[in-house]
Design brief:
By secondary structure, the chain is α/β, with parallel strands linked by helices. The protein is built from twelve helices and 21 strands. The protein folds into two domains: 157 residues, Lyase, Ornithine Decarboxylase, Chain A, domain 1 (Beta Barrel), CATH 2.40.37; 173 residues, TIM Barrel (Alpha-Beta Barrel). The radius of gyration is 23 Å and the shape is globular.
Amino acid sequence: MSHPYPTPTLHAVNGALALEDVALQDIATRYGTPAYVYSRAALTAAFEAYRQALGGRRSLVCYAVKANSNLGVLSVFARLGAGFDIVSGGELARVIAAGGDAGKVVFSGVGKSRAEMRQALAAGIRCFNVESAAELERLNEVAGDAGRTAPIALRVNPDVDPKTHPYISTGLKSNKFGVAFDDAPALYRRAAQLPHLRIHGVACHIGSQLLDAAPMVEAAQKLLALVDQLAAEGIALDHIDLGGGLGIRYRDETPPAVAEYLAPLLAAFEGRKEELCFEPGRSLVGNAGLLLTRIEYLKPGEEKNFAIVDAAMNDLARPALYDAYHEVVAVHERTLPPQRYEIVGPICESGDFLAHDRSLAVAEGDLLAILSAGAYGMTMSSNYNTRGRAAEVMVDGDRVHLVRERETVENLFAAEQPLP
């Protein structure tokens, strides 16, 4: 039987929810709501699943920082020996501040600035995943000016349909990411001629929330053909970066276990000498976190009942942005008859909802846990309506660490000034 909650360390104790050994009620009392709450044990178990599945194979797991960039979260992965996949200079600064190894950092993204390139070269990152011909030329120029050699891989677009949400599909011809598969050989030849670049590998990333390994295997086989073609031309690649994208359970999805997902990929690379790199994000953090919120008002209506909570679309944008589903559970069991509710926030937008038509037995003042919120929750949050962003806390056994203080209104306009 599957665990009743997507978060493996979430469980009920005497009719109230706890994460690891800490009651969610105690966290709300101490730190207020809304608050993002993460489980160190869940983060660790998710990372170890990759390490074990990869066994003794030469490999590197680079956590995709964009999924959740809190220093507390990054420090957990840094201590586990993870690499990091970044998409900005700001993310690189976060990784270093959290104790991450810059030598295990890969830098993806279509719009790297000269300043970001200089910053990454100075830090000594492992590899730039180059996404266009123009970037190749710019990086060579910046590296030359800095008196350095830039390690590179081309992010190749294998044009494989990942069968996921169109906004998180990234490997098709029509997407902005990467270079076209058919253009890759000529670009590698150009890279080999440029004096301040050193070719390390090849990368791809076909999309996010993947529930089937088949599209990844198809992409991997295309990459292998490219690697062998380049080797025949005297361009040897040392690593193959297959990106991330393994999905998680939000509602009733049945994503494969990490070992099950990686098995056909590893079989495709059997006997190969290249190092394999992976860039998981959501599958490491998504179900290691939840958003804790309190019901401000219950508002019955003729057509719909509303539970108005103190979290909103600025805290968790995914429902408004993607119509994404997040499971919502009451922190305390009540003997009231359940009713159907729209879970909405205080923001002045009709799109400010967190969940539609949920059955809950609740009263005003009750706490709700919005599950599977560890990925693309806090990192996509905003200050719309002059709302300070939530506190973030990390549960570690029976201890709780405040890993980000709640923003105050004064924080929000500290850098602004009225006209004289």
